[in-house]
Structure formats: C-alpha cells, structure tokens
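seq as requested:
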Amino acid sequence: MATLSYQRELSITDEYDVVVVGGGSAGCMAAIQAGRAGAKTALIEKNGILGGTTVVASVNFPGLFHAWGKQIIAGVGWEIIEETARRGGAVMPDFSDPYKEHRHWEHQILLNRFLYSSVLDESCMEAGVDLRFHEMPSSMELVDDHVLIAITGKSGLSLIRTKQVIDATGDANVADMLGYTLESEEQPQPGTLIYGLSGYKLEDVDQEKLLKLYQKAVASGSLLHTDHSPGEIPFLGELRSAGGNRMHITGIDGADSASKSVAEVKARQSLMRIYLFLRQVPGCEKLEVSYVANECGIRETRRIVGEKRITVKDYVSGEVWPDAVCYSFYPVDIHRQGDNTTDIRPLSEGIFPTIPLGALIPRGSDHLLAAGRCISGDQEASSAYRVQASCMATGQAAGAAAALAAKLDVSVREVDVEQVRDLLERHGAIVPRQTVQAFL
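struct tokens:
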C-alpha cells in the first residue's frame, strides 16, 4: 500500500484577535463589525469573491429587513445594501407598505451581484479586515487559550493563531473541527440551482403540447417532478419567469466536500433534463440556458447545539429573549424533501421574532461563535432565520461579541450582553431591548 509521508513542521505565520470562516451574508458582516470594533480580523473564504449564497448561488434577493411597516434589521448589512443601491445595484421595494396576503417576497431586494460583492470588498478593507481568498481551514486545535488553525491554500498549508473564531460556513464546519456537538435532520431540505432561460417567446409556447410531453417524460424517467415548481401546467411558471429559484435537488446533504460535490452534479443533471425537455416543446425549439449559478444553493445541513436553542414555538410567538441581540423576520419556510412543494407558515401580524446570543455560542464554547444558518435551533425555526437578512444580523452580533471577548480576554460565554448591544447600536444595528408591545 502506498503512503504519503508529510514531515513539514508548520510555524505560525499570522496572529489575529478574530478569524471569521466563510464570506457570505453572516461572515462578511461579522468580519466588518469585528474590524470596526478594533479587533485584528481575518476573513477566510473558499471562493475568490465575497457574498456567499447571494453571489455564487445567485440568491441575490435578500430579505427581510422590515416587519409590519417597521425596519427591524439594520446595521452593517443594511449599510452595504444601501451603498449598493446608491451605485445603482439594488431595486428597493416600498417598505412602508406592508406586503399583502403574506406575499413576503415583495419585500426582498434585488441586487446586482458584482456591485454588491465589490461593496463588500471595500467595506472589509476599510475595516482593516485581512481578506484571505481561496483558503479553507483543514484542522483546528485549542492551545494555550488560543485557537490554532491550519489553513489549506494554493501554496499548501499554513498556520495561524487567533483568540476567537466565528463559524460562518453555514454548515458548522468549524464547530465540527473543534469537536462541538451538532444536530441535523434525517431529511434536510432540498437544494436549488438558480438558472436563466432565453431564446423563446412565451406566447408561442404550445401549453397543451407542453403538458402531454411532460407526462410522457415523467413516465419514462427522463424528467423528475422535482425538476420544476408546482403548477397546473409544469414548467409554465419557469417559462414565464425565464428560469429562477424553482427546482428541488433532493437526497443531498452538502455539509462536507463529498456531499456538496454530489449536490453540484445532481443540480446540473436536473438543469440538463430541463433543457433537453423544453427544447422539444413547440415554441421552445431555440431555448437556451442563458445563465446558471456557480453553486447549488443549500438550505440546510447542520446546526450547532448552543447554550440556547430557538424552537419554532419561540420563533412564531415573538419570544423576546433576555440576551436577544437581533431580530429575525421570515415565515417558517420548509421546502419538502422528495417533492416540489413548500410548507410556508406566515407569522401572525405584530410578531417580531428575536435571536438570543446564546444561540450563537456552541454549548461549552470559550473561543467560538456561530453565525448564519448554523446557529442553534430546530428545523422549523431555522427554516425562517436561515435567510440572508437574519444571517447579516446574527453575523454582526457574532462579530461584536467576538471582538469584545478578544479585547477583554474572556470566554464568549462571559461577554456582557449589554456591552454587545451597546456596540451593535453604535454601529447602526437595531437591538431588542424591550418587549414586543413597547416595540409596537
């Protein structure tokens, strides 16, 4: 049997107060907040561009920042959105008009991916954040009240040391490396590959023929019913919107490289089935795939088991946690595994869910916080707080807490939540300090 001998001894090349892993909605805001608070901060991102799912998976319509006619999430993330809008890269809805009939998507913001990612670059650099693209942590260890992180990059392995780490991977990869307890579902929500279609006119499409061809294709196995959204005439919605956020990629995980590879392949296979099928439909003979996201969007993998855990009962009741650090607002939104439907449960009017600092702290952690969709909660609650605006808010909160812990040389569990709230408010965040009734 062949073996590989690796004898190289690594020396520490860089030292930080805070290291953030993952440059998406949560990680960017965490890094910017930590940097602005005076912490020497690094942001490790596996891709060559910031923005995470917003950019590389093309889910470039973040929400929700407003609830019942009031803004409930602001701070660093909202600042980035506003600057993108000033440069002509964001379509802003009328937030003063609460959406009608639970049409929550009416308050999502359409972003230009390039402009948004460029503003993120600038904001990170202005905050003094060390951007480390094309790198991933390969191992971590707690040593002498610090975290040693072995980084894999294009030049091989390097070693850095930090006081605090923020897991913004979405998949709790850092928490897993450090040995903290995680939870996951037997049937996580399916993923979606966003794409665009062109080369046809909707009025030329023979809808009757479309339905007959679809029935034949599903019967033969050349199409799956998860390749499209629900509707009386399959794919009519996709053709009306010229593609979009519609297919379900089922039977995938995505928490590690192997399962994420399976997800990417299955997603592209789905789009190929769609393409080959639609070109048979009269009126779509010249249909083209005009755009496809670089990555399959993953909704759910693993979550930390935190000092506190958000249940769906907590979320939909608008529970105001004693250590609440931000709001969240989105309906319970579970994409069903195995079919093409979604269980959407809008919040009752006047409900403003909150997120506790304890849900960002893995149980027993001194040097690690989580941010984004891998914070602690059950599947139903996490299906709501996993969205981008909420991830921005939890990211900024994690950045503030990590910066304070590093500055004071204390455990993340010992940071005074009032100091976290004060720091967040100084940087524009909206913090739950009172009851829902007072907020109203």
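The chain has a mean pLDDT of 94.
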